[in-house]
Each structure stands twice: as structure tokens, then as C-alpha cells.
Amino acid sequence: MRILGIDPAFRVSGFGVIEVTRFTPRYLVSGSIKVAHLPDAQRLLTLQDNITRLIAQFKPDVLAIESPFVYKNPQSAIKLGMARGVIMAAAAKEGLAIAEYTPTQIKSAVVGKGHALKSQVQYMVSQLLGLSEQPSEDAADALACGLTHAKIAAFTSRLTT
Q: pTM above 0.85?
């Protein structure tokens, strides 16, 4: 199973692609989609184009995306919702299954603590994937989202077999 993990944002979205065979995750690629310098509508279009390109290049089976948490600033929540919308629409257009996980679920699955620090997520992602250096915060969050889906999918398949 190939998983495209996404940490959505209106300024810098993280992405990570992993492949899972026999319950062992393998790192393929990760990075950030930086759109902060663009006008709002152009940000969304660029984000959608980049997601579509990643799907075409890596042919994932599923998109795992972080679901929103409560924001104090309503404008930030609205902008995050717009970014998530174009990402999910791009995935749906390509026929991908979409799985959503809360930040607490992701941190619990990867670090073992639902309120882990970003540095702890970065460290555990690099350890679990055997990376020689830690990915950026955005990429680590995206990879952690993908790892969460891999863990939950493995657990679910064990229950049904």
C-alpha cells in the first residue's frame, strides 16, 4: 500500500509518501509545498496542482490528511478549510480513498503521547523510517499522518482476517 500523507496549511503544506509492505513502512519522498508568497486564489490553485502532480508521480492508494483542530482565529480556520478542500478534491478527482486523522491520533500513533511536541514527532518519524536526518516539521507531520494510516490499516486488516 502506498500512502500520501498531508499536513495541510494555507501557507506551507507538508507532504510525505511512504510504502507499506508486510507492515514495514518505507520512505519514498517528503517535502513542503510553499505558497505563502502568492495571492489567496493562486495559493489554492498551486496547492491543488502540486497535489495532483504528487498523485500522478507516486500513484498512492490513499491520501491520509490531518483533520482540523479548533482555532482561536476564525480566519485561520476558514483558510485551513479551503486548503484542505482543494487537497481532498484533488485526491477525490483521482479516485483516491481519503483517511482523516486528528493531531492527537497522529501523535499517539507515532510517539505514544497525544500531546507530543513537534520535535518528538520529527525524531520518531526519522527513527521509524530509518532516515539519516530529521525531516522539516511540515514534512514530518505529513509522514506521521501516513504512518498513522499504515498502523491503523494494519490493525484493521488483522481484525478482519
A: yes
Closest to 105 in 3D by CA, of 65, 135, 133? 65
Which domains, from first to last, does the chain contain? 2-160 (3.30.420.10)
- Return the active site residues: 7, 66, 138
Structure-block grid coordinates of residue 19:
510504502
Distance CA 120, CA 28 (A): 21
Write out the chain's pLDDT in tens, 161 residues. 999 999 999 999 999 999 998 768 999 999 999 999 999 999 999 999 999 999 999 999 999 999 987 667 888 889 999 999 999 999 999 999 999 999 999 999 999 999 999 999 999 999 999 999 999 999 999 999 999 999 988 766 554 54
DSSP symbols for 84-108 = HHHHHHHHHHTT-EEEEE-HHHHHH
Dihedral angle sign, alpha carbons of residues 131, 136, 137, 138: negative
CA distance 32 to 81: 18
**Residue 36 three-state SS:** coil
